[in-house]
Every structure is written in structure tokens, then in C-alpha cells.
Amino acid sequence: MDKSESEAAPGWLETRLPLCAVWRTQWRDHLVPANLTLVWSFGVLVAVALGVLTLSGIWLGFAYVPTTQGAALSIERYTRAVNFGWLIRDLHRDGATMLFGVVFIELFRGIYYGSYRNRRELAWIIEVVRFFAFLAVGFFGFAMTGGAVADAAVTIMAAHIAAIPLFGSALAHWFLGGFMVGSATAPRLAMAHETIGFLVLLIALLGFMASRAAPPANPDGIAVPDPRDMVPQSAYAGKLFTAFMIFALIFAVIVAFAPGLGQPAGMSLTSPMAMPVQPVPPWYLLGFHGLARAGQSAGGGTLLTVAALVLLGALPWLDQGIVASGRYRPLYAGFVIVLAIDWVVLSVAAAQPATGIWPAVIDIATIYVFVHFIVITPLVTMLERAHPVPARIARRTA
Amino acid sequence: MRRLLFAAAVALTALGLGQSARAETRTPQSFRFQSLFGTYNKASLQVGFAVYQADCASCHGLSLVHYRDLAHLGLSPQDIAAIVSHIKVQKGVDPAGKPVLAPAMARDAFKSPFPDEAAAEKKFHGAIPPDLSLIERGHRDGADFVFSLLMGYRAAPPNVTMPPHHFYNIAYPGGLIAMAPPLKPGSVTLADGKKPDVQAMAHDVAEFLAWTADPTLDQRKAVGLRIIIFLLILGALGGFAIRAGRRT
User: Fold this and answer.
1) What is the nearest CA distance from B51 to chain A, expressed in angstroms?
2) Which CATH number characterizes residue B178's domain?
3) Is residue B229 in a domain?
4) Residues 6+ apart with CB under 8 A from A170
5) For the segment A7-63, what is each residue's pLDDT rounded down to a tens digit?
6) B237 lies in a domain?
7) I need a surface site. Which of A39, A75, A90, A165 has the fewest CB within 10 A?
8) How far is CA A162 from the centre of its chain?
């Protein structure tokens, strides 16, 4: 669009609903630092994944029957009897994998580069709340697919909810629609999945607003970049395209050659004879499954899971150093890498039966998560001698 | 950040490789569809369907499969019509309340071998033969499991006490299975008049049940490959366009 043309004479619609102005101010002329890397495109990828999930979810909703018998059967029939029904189901199921892949990397990006500094505390907290909402939607989506594995997962979750003091047991009763998984449960799971699923879109919008209000984060962690180091966001169109193509290719490979990757086979109708001994959730919930297992009891599991999310949200206060970016904090960066490995180890161990070394692995990995946030992060901030941060952006990428 | 992603990927791979294998006595088979671009072998599927009809269908249902789906095995509408014409299913009741039996149609689901689970339980001493539509999805490497199970019947070791109506099978978890050895040599005759041996029958019926569990595999791989090629071309064109745009 030509600048003079669009700004000279706003038309009838533009004077009443300034959509072009939003496009100009938020994209074309919006200034961002000139050193953003490929992982800074992940906010857009979250939006893409949410779009795919919302649309495919609506179409699956046409077919889904929220009853004890119908939950698994209706979607199974949809994948068989409707043209490309399998594609819509896998866009949804594997779309969740893509979303969480992007969200996990985005969260570690925030931790690594200290993106919660410089008036971005609230943006960070909203990102953590959004992450929690994603986890809830993911859990309800897994739970509403029916079958013995999902029912076992719902029963375990109800025990965790019931362990909340004061109103826990009432909440668990409301969650199940009775004292145990029954005919009232499936519609609740479906409604929770859909309601929170749409709520996430609102939370994401609030997070976008909060992150736009503060000075932009960047990989050098420069608090307020020099105006000469700022470029319009549209200069990153090429990078966004690259990120999108990588995302789409991985997505296509999973849908075509590994549908349901990392998700339990019990997520659909299977023979009751073939149920695994131990219910294992989808991969993106495994880390929290590990925390819950390390808690030893329903109450302990709830406590550890909530505590981990609260500590994640409290990072702006746990890490109060002057230097933000892991690029100039070698020690801190090393510990963040260890945390990422630790989370992977915790997730893998949580999928194993409670025999041999696995329970010990879960305990140690859980302890490290808390040690990282409570001990290492504040201590390293105090003790570490960070490299000097350049005043200007050293390496431009756009 | 790059180091971070790399480290996480390495950890994931190492742990994935180190995962413990569970102990079950399996006889691994090679099926074409198990390879990355592999599709079902239609000849094998047709034999597998014949084996199912001859040796499985009297006890096990295939509730998620419809007769029309047999077209995916390469059967013509005439073949399917010939198959369903021999199958009587209940179509409503007459004014006296008695069930009306009529020949099945292509659009009908596979006929259940039992009116209900209670009847199955009574006939089979309390063991209900499971529906086979998704049996292979419920097991790791389902086709290998079914093949190994069908070939896994052995004489019980002396230290095992066999309960009544049970058989010893090395591929079944626990070893005791209520299903008698189902495959009978000679129950299926191929188009060329030959009768496949039990091992060939087990292989083909394992492939047939892989198809019932995942009937869209062929289409999924074909469509997926086309999408991936499209994305690669789009990515290349987009990359050139962006470079050209930068130069001007």
C-alpha cells in the first residue's frame, strides 16, 4: 500500500473503523530493535497455531458427541467416514504438538534473554497465565477424547483438584459432575476445553498489548535501544516467512508420517483389553505429570505444580540483576541450558513406570527445577560478573 | 539460544534411544506399510480379509468398518455386492415385533457376530472376543503383535497350570489366552487355487487389521508428500522473492 495514498484520504470505513491505522501502527511503521533473531518470530507462530487449532476444533466440534460412549467413537467415525476428516483431526491433534513446541521454546527464550525485565513483568506474567491456560486446554482436550486412559487421567486430576484446601472437594465434584467419572463428565470436559480455548485468544491479545506497552525486548537485552537501531517490524517479513515455512514443514511431516506423535494411543477408542498399565498424558503435559508424581500424594502434586508455575511468573523478582540477556551472562546461560535439559529428563522419566531408577530421576529433576528458580537464579544474579553490554546493537539482523 | 535448543534436542534424542524395551516374545515381521513411504499391499489386504471372513468373523466384530470400505482393498462394486448378498442383517422389526432379516447393503457396517455382549459371554465361558477394528492401535507395533499372537501358540510349560478354556501363547501378556488357535490351514483358497500356509495367513490378516485400525494411511502419506513438496517449492520461491526485494 502506498503511504501517501492510504494516509491522505481515509475512506468512509477507515474514518469509522480505523483498521488500516492499526495495520500501519502495529506492523508497517511499528519500530522494533534491529537485532531480532528467528526465535522472535514465535509470537506469530503461536497465532498461526491458534488459528489452525480454532478452525479445526470448530469442525471437529460439528462431529463430536459428548457422551461416555460417543466421545471416542464420534471422532473415530469422523476420521473414517468424512472426506479428509483424518486431516482435520490430525491438524488439531498435531496442531497441539506444534503449539506447545513453539510455546516451550518461547518460554525458554524469555528465561534465557531475560525478556521479563524493563517494565515487562506484567507481559511475562500474562505469558505464564497463557501457558497455564494452554496446559488446561491441552489437558481437557486429551481428557475429552474418552477411553480408559483419558478416564483414568480425569480421575487423577479430580484427586489433585480435591486436594486444594477449603473448596477443593466441591470444585472436584463440580469438575466431574458427580463423585466419579460418569455420564455428566464428558460434556463438562468438552465445554471446559472450548471455553478456555476461546479465553486463551483473549489472554493472548492482552499479552500482546502488554508487550507492546513496554520497551521491546531483544537478544542483547538492551533496555532502551538507540533510535538509530530501530527498524519497522515489516523489515522482518523475510524472517517471519522463514519461521513460518519451517513451522509448516515440520507440521506437515508430523501429520503425514507421524500423526499423534507423542500422544498416547489411548487417546482414541481402543479395546479395553489393550489398555496400558499406567496412564501417560500427551508429551506437553509430561513435565507437570512428573512434578505431580514427585509430590507423592494428590496434595503434594498440586502444590508442586502450582508452585512451579508461580515461580516461573515470579522470575522478574527472582532475577534482579542489571544485565538481562544470557548472551552476556555465561554462567546464567549455562544454568538455563541445564534447566531445559532437566525439563526434558523430567518429561521422559514421567512417562516411565514407577520402577528401577525412574522415581529417583523424577525426584532429582523436580528438585532441580525448584533449585534453579529459588537458589540458582538469585544467587547467580548476585555473584556473576557479566560481560559488558554494548550501548548500541552490535549485530544487526534486519 | 542456539546452544539451548541444541542441548535440549540432544538430551531428548539420548533419552529416546535409551528407553527400555518391554519384554514380550515377538516375531518381528516386515510389512511394507511400516516403512516411511510404504503403502498397504492390496493383494495382501484381500487375502487378509478372506482370512478374517473364514477364521475370525465368527467371533470378532469389525464395528468401525463398512462393506463399502472394501473398495480400498481393490474390490469392485460388483465384488462388494456379491459379498454383502450372502450376509443377512436385521433391518427393523415386523408388526409382530420379530426381527426382519434382509441382505446387507454396501453402506452397512460389518455385521457383529453376536446380538450383544451377554450372548458372547455365555458362548465363550465369560471371555468376550474383542472388536478387532482398532486392536492393532492398542498395541505397540500392532501388526507385529497380531502376527506374533497368531503364531505364538505353544504347549504349556510344565510349571504353568492351565485354567479351563485357556491356551498357552508366548506373545500374549501373561501367556494365558482364552482364544483357541484360530487359523486353520486350508480355510482360504487364493485366486490361483493355492492354499496359503498358516504363517502367510497370519501375515496377511495382520496387514488387514492394520488397515482396519488406520484405513487412511495410504491417502495420508500421498497427500502429505504432496503438501511437503508444495511447501518446499513455496519456500524456495518465497526465498528468491525476498532476496530480489532486498536488492532493489
Assistant:
1) 21
2) 1.10.760.10
3) no
4) none
5) 567 889 999 999 999 999 888 889 999 999 999 999 999 999 999 999 999 999 999
6) no
7) A165
8) 25
Same domain, yes or no: B184 and B141 = yes
Same domain, B51 and B159: yes
Query: Is the same domain home to B179 and B123?
Result: yes
Is any Cβ of chain A less than 8 angstroms from the Cβ of B105? no
Residue range of the domain that includes B80: 66-108
Judge whether B230 lies within some domain: no
Residue A325 CA, distance from chain mean position: 22
Return the domain boundaries, chain A: 38-221+239-262+276-383
Q: Is there a contact between B63 and B131 (Cβ–Cβ < 8 Å)?
A: yes
B45 and B145 together in one domain: yes
The three-state secondary structure class of A324 is coil
Unique residue bearing C-alpha cell 434382509: B102
Number of domains in chain B: 2
Gap from B157 CA to chain A (nearest CA, Å): 24
* ipTM of predicted assembly, 2 dp: 0.86
One-letter amino acid for residue A119 of the chain: R
pTM here? 0.90
Let me know if residue B137 belongs to a domain: yes
- Taking the domain A38-221+239-262+276-383, which CATH number applies? 1.20.810.10
Q: Which residue from B4, B66, B220 is facing A336, i.e. has the nearest CB?
A: B4
DSSP for A220-289, written as a single string: T--SS--GGGEEEGGGGHHHHHHHHHHHHHHHHHHHHHSTTTTS-GGGS---GGG--SS----HHHHHHH
Check whether residue B162 and residue B131 sit in a common domain: yes
- The answer on B85 and B36 residing in a single domain is no
For residues B32 and B149, state if they share a domain. yes
CA distance B175 to chain A (A): 14
Can you list the alpha helix ranges (DSSP code H) found in chain A?
Answer: 3-8, 12-16, 19-23, 42-63, 70-81, 85-113, 121-143, 147-162, 168-176, 185-213, 237-257, 283-294, 298-313, 315-318, 330-350, 358-371, 377-383
pLDDT one-digit tens code per residue, A186-236: 999 999 999 999 999 999 999 999 988 888 888 888 888 888 899 998 889
If asked whether residues B39 and B155 sit together in one domain, one would say: yes
> Which amino acid makes up residue A230?
M
Question: pLDDT tens digits, chain B, 248 residues: what are they?
Answer: 666 667 666 666 665 554 444 445 777 778 989 888 999 999 999 999 999 999 999 999 999 999 999 999 999 999 999 999 988 888 888 899 898 988 999 999 999 898 888 888 888 888 888 889 988 887 778 899 999 999 999 999 998 888 888 999 999 888 899 999 999 888 888 888 888 899 999 999 999 999 999 999 999 999 999 999 999 999 999 999 988 887 77
Q: Is B131 on the interface with A (CB under 8 A)?
A: yes
